[in-house]
Every structure is written in C-alpha cells, then in structure tokens.
Design a protein that fits this description.
By secondary structure, the chain is mainly alpha-helical. The protein folds into 2 domains: 2-47, no CATH class; 53-180, Orthogonal Bundle (Lysozyme). Helix content is 53%, strand content 4%. It has helices spanning 2-11, 16-28, 38-47, 53-64, 70-75, 109-122, 127-139, 144-149, 160-172, and strands at residues 82-83, 89-90, 102-104. Strands 1-3-2 form a 3-stranded antiparallel β-sheet. Helix 4 (53-64) packs across helix 9 (160-172). The radius of gyration is 18 Å and the shape is globular. The two termini are 15 Å apart.
Length: 183
C-alpha cells in the first residue's frame, strides 16, 4: 500500500483517499509528520515492512514452547509479549514479587501475530532491526535473517542468550527455507 501511494506521489498529487491513508498509517505507526513528503514515505517503509517468516516462526517456537506453554494454550500468546495491565494478560505463575507484568492474551492467533508485527515494527528496542532490514533490502543482502536476528536481544530478558537460542532454532529446524516462498 505504502509503495503504491509513494509511486503515485512521485508522479503526481495524491487524492483525498490516499492522503487520508498516509495520515492513518503515520498515526498508527507512531510517526510524526508535518507534510506528506519523501522523508515520511521513507520512515513509513521502515516501519511497515515484512518480518521474515523464519524469524516469526522461530520466535513463536521459543516464546510458546512449541505452542505448548500455558500462555499459548490459554491466551493464544505465541510471542510472549508483556503487558502491565493484568486484566489484559495472564500472570506468570513464578513471577518475581518485584515484577508487575503479565503476558498479553489474545482471542486468536491472528491477533497475536498482528500484535507481534506491530511491536517489532514500532518499538524503539527494535530500531536497529528495522534499519538493518532496510539496508539488507537496498543492497540485496543474501542472508538478511542472520543480520537481523542480532538486533532482537531486547525481545527477552536473557538478551544475547535469546539471540543464540533463536539462531539455533533457525538453523536446526531449517526455518530459513520459509523465507524463500513468494506470497
């Protein structure tokens, strides 16, 4: 959607519906804007972009224990996202007393996947991931997943150990094969 509107913007003025869509997407993805211009489209493309299937599947495997965790079964929480509103989540059984988080619950797996993608595409902790993703696209890097996974340490409390675990899951299950499919 963004690419199509950007291409039209480069050729001629946008119509009211296209302007409204750019404003809607800018608002949804927490981007400040004064005018619709090339820098805004650049920032939109950085935020609204594909997350490799292998990474999403690998993270879901880790976060949900292959779909067997209590959070996945009771709340469709396959990505282990936190919330501080306990009524929106499931409280971990062994949560430290000084912690106040819960694991965000969802009505279905689609909601869980959308929330994961929005989180990766907007949260400041994954800014490096989004930058590398844009660079890899620009230079046609042959193994962009390997470069991107390094920027997901903030996804879990265990940091680099999480990255190591994710790399192992990706390799041992040959998940990068999923990234070759055209959709």
């Amino acid at each position: 959607m963004v690419l199509n509107i950007e291409k039209k913007y480069e050729r001629k003025a946008l119509n009211e519906n296209e302007i409204n869509e750019v404003i809607r997407l800018s608002t949804k993805y927490n981007l400040e804007w004064d005018s619709i211009d090339e820098p805004l489209f650049k920032r939109l493309k950085q935020r609204i972009n594909i997350i490799p299937v292998s990474l999403a599947v690998g993270q879901a495997i880790i976060e949900s224990g292959w779909g067997q965790s209590r959070f996945a079964i009771e709340g469709n929480a396959i990505f282990g996202q936190w919330t501080y509103a306990e009524d929106e989540g499931i409280v971990p059984e062994n949560r430290d007393e000084d912690k106040s988080h819960a694991v965000l619950k969802f009505d279905n797996l689609t909601q869980s996947s959308r929330a994961y993608m929005f989180n990766i595409n907007t949260h400041q902790a994954y800014y490096g991931f989004r930058i590398i993703r844009r660079i890899a696209e620009t230079v046609k890097y042959t193994d962009p997943v390997s470069a991107k996974v390094k920027f997901l340490a903030a996804y879990a409390e265990i940091g680099q150990e999480y990255v190591d675990k994710l790399e192992l899951i990706l390799e041992s299950n040959n998940l990068k094969e999923f990234d070759r499919f055209a959709y």
